[in-house]
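hey
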């Protein structure tokens, strides 16, 4: 029996052996070569950024923004967010399923004990050696069974479960990266909204002051009712833009609270302003061959492909013979005191082979379905890779244009400020009317809002690049590496 078991264990695993997909045969991400971005030194976030080929990504890349408030909030989020805990539980569950499957490689043993009261038919008597029609029967026994993995059914099942466990590991990594990137993006958006709200309130204050002046002038007969009505309309339009900004700010605060694992009623101590953030100047640019290893979504798709490959072997093995080896040993006695006496023991050894013959074509079609599922997984992997490269390319293109946008917006603010200063002086000297001053003030505040939005976009796209390149999870000690 032992020799037979060793011989059967030497069988091969049916189905295809999995091979990792080849790295994409591309040399870059964008159609045109990348160059250092445009910079301007007199505004926050206006520094020149350069792309460094092959620069590694730190595990805590958000620390490159040099904001302690941001660091603290992300650390709390990674500790308290329920999505992280759910992903950790899913990984632990997949790991336990893998360990459970390991039990199929070993013989299974079970102990049993039965005690029965019996009456034998007079036509069959005597059954016990004392010829009693009524008797008790006590039977303790141990049963051992073993299913040799001749065609690799257990091995392919284990391979599939390991791949599924790896999928969950990379799902945890993806959740980790997405959460940290979402916190950074929400903090940047909050900072942008605060700056826009400040600029809008300045516009409202200026228009309110101007309306009061015009009303006084109307009372004295220096202006007509049309000028007052026009100013009231300007003030109402400015006030109308404030409420949506305040709503967005409240929503961002709610979002940050939930990302940190809190209820919205639990306000966060951190508040964010663009001036508190420092723009990273050296930006990593991973090699295309590295991207497929760094992106957790690509690695998930690869493990899904691996699992689908193993499922073909499982479906194939289910069509082949199954060999079962069994052994039973125990005792049988009429009284409990005689269970362990000499001569009461029994044992059996057996082997059986089961070969599916007719299942209505079910097993054949399941094997064909497994092969089609593999093709589906292969195409999904390719789609995930293409999307990953698109994410990086989109972010790189945005960063190249963000520098120009900040530079242009900063120049517009400078020009609008000069115009406003000159108009204010002319107004004080009586050479410019209130409409010219109002127009100059609004142009300056609108230019300030545009600059704020351009700065926020540059910060956000910088964070998006770190996320698109994989987020440096391989340097995180609190993430399972394999």
């Amino acid at each position: 029996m032992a020799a037979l078991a060793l011989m059967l264990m030497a069988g091969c695993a049916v189905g295809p052996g999995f091979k990792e997909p080849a790295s994409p045969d591309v040399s870059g991400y964008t159609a045109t070569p990348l160059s250092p971005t445009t910079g301007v030194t007199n505004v926050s976030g206006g520094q020149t950024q350069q792309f460094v080929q092959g620069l590694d990504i730190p595990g805590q890349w958000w620390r490159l923004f040099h904001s302690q408030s941001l660091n603290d909030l992300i650390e709390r989020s990674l500790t308290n967010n329920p999505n992280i805990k759910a992903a950790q539980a899913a990984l632990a569950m997949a790991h336990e399923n893998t360990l459970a499957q390991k039990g199929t490689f070993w013989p299974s043993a079970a102990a049993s004990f039965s005690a029965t009261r019996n009456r034998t038919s007079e036509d069959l008597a005597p059954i016990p050696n004392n010829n009693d029609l009524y008797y008790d029967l006590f039977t303790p026994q141990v049963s051992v069974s073993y299913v040799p993995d001749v065609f690799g059914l257990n091995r392919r099942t284990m391979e599939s479960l390991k791949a599924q466990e790896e999928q969950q590991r990379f799902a945890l990594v993806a959740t980790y990266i997405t959460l940290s990137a979402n916190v950074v993006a929400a903090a940047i958006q909050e900072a942008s909204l605060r700056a826009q709200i400040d600029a809008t309130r300045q516009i409202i204050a200026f228009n309110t002051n101007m309306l009061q002046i015009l009303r006084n002038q109307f009372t004295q007969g220096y202006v007509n009712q049309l000028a007052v009505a026009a100013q009231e309309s300007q003030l109402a339009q400015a006030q109308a833009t404030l409420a949506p900004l305040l709503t967005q700010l409240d929503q961002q605060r709610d979002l940050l609270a939930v990302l940190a694992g809190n209820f919205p009623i639990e306000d966060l101590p951190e508040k964010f302003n663009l001036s508190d953030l420092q723009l990273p100047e050296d930006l990593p640019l991973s090699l295309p061959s590295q991207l497929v290893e760094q992106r957790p979504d690509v690695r998930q798709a690869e493990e899904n492909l691996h699992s689908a490959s193993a499922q073909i072997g499982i479906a194939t093995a289910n069509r082949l013979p199954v060999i079962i080896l069994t052994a039973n040993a125990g005792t049988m006695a009429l009284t409990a005191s005689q269970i362990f006496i000499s001569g009461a023991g029994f044992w059996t050894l057996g082997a059986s082979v089961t070969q599916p013959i007719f299942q209505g074509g079910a097993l054949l079609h399941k094997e064909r379905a497994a092969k089609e599922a593999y093709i589906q997984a292969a195409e999904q992997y390719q789609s995930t890779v293409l999307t990953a490269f698109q994410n990086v390319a989109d972010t790189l293109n945005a960063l190249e244009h963000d520098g120009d946008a900040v530079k242009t917006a900063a120049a517009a603010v400078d020009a609008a400020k000069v115009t406003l200063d000159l108009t204010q002086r002319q107004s004080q000297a009586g050479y410019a009317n209130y409409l010219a001053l109002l127009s100059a003030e609004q142009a300056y505040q609108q230019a300030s809002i545009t600059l704020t939005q351009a700065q926020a976009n540059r910060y956000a796209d910088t964070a998006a690049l770190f996320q698109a390149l994989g987020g440096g999870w391989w340097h995180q000690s609190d993430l399972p590496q394999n």
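The chain has a mean pLDDT of 90. The first helix runs from residue 2 to 9.
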